[in-house]
From TrEMBL:
Residues 1-40, 242-266 are annotated as: Disordered. InterPro entries: ArsR-like_HTH, Carb_Metab_HTH_regulators, WH-like_DNA-bd_sf, WH_DNA-bd_sf. Residues 1-12 have a biased composition (Polar residues). This is Putative ArsR family transcriptional regulator.
């Protein structure tokens, strides 16, 4: 009884304000859709490339509902479809997987993007292109300083160090994860993936950011790591290959041996 009365009061209040009948419930539905689409976008960011069925299961949505929201997000350019082969859907028949588009990536936390772009342009104009490299190295040197005490807790275990690094990156908004790959001996490795780049559009213009970040990871892990893909170069995630065939970090001499082993895998 209370809910009926409350709804009636809302309807009368809307009518008194000159709002057409049905607008209140419609607005509520729109807000609900927007919240659900935000959840879908976040799930695509965190789990992509991901199928519609997987998203529906993760979010508790019906196939019809998840398709409707995916279609809307694809239509406005926030997500896009990647066709993936070899997933058991039939010979030569690619499966549809969803990832965040470049537009969707750049729409996350870019309030100061134009200010940063202008500042970097002026930095290059005043000091030359090498100034960007120095700027990027300083930025990730600060990251290394913050992360080093966290990774030190893992001792010589490179796999655990990579896991802690992914957690630290996620806390800083990179939506990172680490995955141990199958392999034995020198073929053992971990892949570090980052689903979001807070400076994506700047990294597209200035690859020095990606280079400095890769070098920072190498220093933190004591290994010569290799970048397999980046968001800035068109990948759906940034992927870093971390060889773990020698899982110890033993000062400068140990790090040199680990870097040498990593180079042999290239």
């Amino acid at each position: 009884m209370y809910s009926v009365t409350a709804n009636s009061q809302k309807t009368r209040s809307a009518a008194a304000a000159g709002v057409p009948a049905g607008t209140v419930s419609s607005a509520s539905g729109t807000e609900s859709d927007e919240r659900t689409r935000d959840r879908v976008r976040s799930a695509v960011l965190e789990h992509g490339p991901v199928s519609a069925a997987q998203l529906g299961s993760l979010l508790g949505l019906t196939p019809a509902a998840i398709r409707r929201h995916l279609d809307h997000l694809e239509k406005i350019g926030v997500i896009e479809v990647k066709l993936v082969r070899g997933t058991g859907t039939g010979a030569g028949r690619p499966a549809r997987r969803y990832v965040l588009s470049s537009q969707g990536q750049s729409g996350l936390g870019n309030d100061y993007l134009q200010i940063a772009r202008t500042a970097l342009s002026q930095l290059v104009a005043a000091n030359g292109k090498d100034a960007i490299k120095t700027f990027a190295e300083n930025r990730f040197a600060a990251m290394k300083t913050r992360y080093e005490p966290l990774l030190a807790q893992a001792g010589d275990d490179v796999v655990l160090r990579a896991e802690i690094l992914s957690e630290a990156l996620s806390a800083d908004g990179y939506v990172a994860s680490s995955h141990k790959l199958l392999g034995t001996g020198p073929l053992q490795a971990v892949q570090l993936c980052q689903g979001h780049c807070p400076v994506l559009e700047l990294a597209v213009e200035y690859p020095e950011f990606c280079e400095a970040e890769t070098e920072a990871f190498s220093d933190l892990l004591g290994l010569d790591v290799r970048r397999l893909s980046t968001l800035a170069s068109g990948g759906h995630v940034c992927t870093t290959h971390i060889p773990t065939g020698r899982s110890s970090v033993e000062g400068e001499s140990g790090q040199a041996q680990l870097r040498s082993a990593g180079r042999q895998l290239r």
